């Protein structure tokens, strides 16, 4: 089914679920300010009064749709009306599955902010083939997890020969506050390590290896000092390296053998060791339900820092790529990672799916596979910097 045939009956371009939350509200603000003229969009959720308050604050021509995230019939009705669905409602393992199912069945493009590998793998197992059949593009991790890393890796490997093995490392540094939703999702992941591994293994069996004999995977490592960047590196156990490796498996530009490692970078060994201890403490604490619930209560969902604090926040991701006898260093950088830039990335991804000339694909795909050069251009125009350093 062509995009024209699939979209001929749809009266909306984008529907945003979660606009009454903090990050969802910023996403609504961004869409209202930057959307192209004539955008047909709506905000959706279960509380009509709160949605009406958001619409009044936006002062935009936006429709309000009332639907509970646990009501498959209502979600299906909305999915059939729109070309793209955005959702900021997490943790996605708890709240996300019915909406993905509705989009896959309706042939509706879907974007979210999840950093939860188990949810992404469950989605692949349950809905990838349906989305392939209907033409839907299911694109997870369209915020700080994992747009800068996925698009940054893509930007870097394009500057290396594609006929030779490529090794690439990404090093993240930031000053900013991450959202309550991200914190809750992280605690849930730490508590479900065995379930994550089981679901990941099932997905690997289902999708198999690249048909052309290429290989692509993420690799770990021990803390060490980077000889090129000069930072102390700490392995960063996020969804980002998984997303990058899946883009590498899908696209020949990443070479016949692609290896990616993902790190947090600090200027001193003391900070690196402190980060490692902090992750270890959270991992242990997440195994005890009362402690996990206590920690969640300390960082509530739906709240975040004020604009002044966000304006002082920043992030950088340095990439060092090697292949075919060449070494390339690049950098992706921007402002507040957890909120402002995340809302920007998510919005631009949805607009890209709705309006740009993208690669022909369907099913569960990464941001790079779904949008590639078009999204890269959008992000650069929106102020996120992609630079070749050397």
From TrEMBL:
SUPFAM superfamilies noted in UniProt: NAD(P)-binding Rossmann-fold domains
Location of region: Disordered: 203-223
Domain Saccharopine dehydrogenase NADP binding: 14-136
Compositional bias (Basic and acidic residues): 203-215
TM regions (residue ranges): none
Matches recorded under InterPro entries: NAD(P)-bd_dom_sf, Saccharopine_DH-like_oxidrdct, Sacchrp_dh_NADP-bd
Cross-referenced PANTHER family: SACCHAROPINE DEHYDROGENASE-LIKE OXIDOREDUCTASE
Protein's recorded name: Saccharopine dehydrogenase NADP-binding domain-containing protein
Origin organism lineage: Bacteria, Bacillati, Actinomycetota, Actinomycetes, Propionibacteriales
């Amino acid at each position: 089914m062509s995009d024209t045939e699939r979209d001929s009956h749809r009266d909306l371009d984008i529907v945003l679920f979660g606009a009454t939350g903090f990050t969802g509200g910023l996403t609504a603000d961004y869409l209202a300010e930057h959307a192209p003229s004539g955008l047909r969009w709506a905000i959706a959720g279960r509380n009509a009064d709160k949605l009406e308050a958001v619409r009044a604050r936006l002062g935009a021509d936006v429709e309000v749709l009332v639907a509970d995230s646990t009501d498959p019939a209502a979600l299906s009705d909305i999915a059939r009306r729109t070309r793209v669905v955005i959702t900021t409602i997490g943790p996605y393992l708890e709240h996300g599955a019915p909406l993905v199912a509705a989009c896959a069945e309706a042939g509706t493009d879907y974007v979210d902010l999840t950093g939860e590998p188990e949810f992404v793998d469950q989605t692949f197992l349950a809905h990838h083939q349906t989305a392939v059949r209907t033409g839907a593009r299911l694109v997870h991790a369209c915020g700080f997890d994992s747009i800068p890393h996925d698009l940054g890796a893509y930007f870097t490997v394009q500057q290396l020969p594609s006929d030779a093995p490529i090794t690439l490392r990404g090093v993240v540094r930031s000053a900013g506050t991450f959202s309550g939703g991200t914190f809750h999702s992280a605690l849930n992941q730490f508590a479900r390590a065995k379930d994550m591994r089981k679901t990941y293994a099932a997905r690997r069996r289902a999708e198999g290896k690249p048909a052309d004999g290429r290989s692509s995977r993420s690799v770990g490592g021990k803390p060490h000092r980077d000889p090129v960047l000069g930072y102390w590196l700490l392995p960063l156990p996020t969804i980002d390296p998984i997303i990058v490796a899946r883009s590498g498996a899908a696209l020949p530009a990443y070479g016949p053998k692609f290896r990616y490692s993902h790190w947090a970078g600090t200027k001193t060994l003391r900070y690196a060791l402190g980060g490692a201890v902090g992750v270890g403490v959270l991992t242990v604490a997440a195994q005890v339900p009362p402690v996990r619930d206590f920690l969640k209560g300390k960082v509530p969902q739906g709240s975040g820092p004020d604009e002044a604090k966000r304006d002082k926040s920043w992030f950088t991701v340095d990439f060092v790529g090697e292949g075919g006898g060449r070494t390339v260093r690049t950098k992706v950088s921007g402002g507040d990672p957890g909120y402002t830039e995340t809302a920007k990335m998510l919005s631009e991804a949805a607009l890209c799916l709705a309006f740009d000339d993208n690669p022909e694909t369907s099913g569960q795909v990464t941001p790079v596979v779904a949008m590639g050069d078009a999204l890269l251009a959008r992000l650069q125009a929106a102020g996120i910097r992609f630079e070749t350093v050397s």
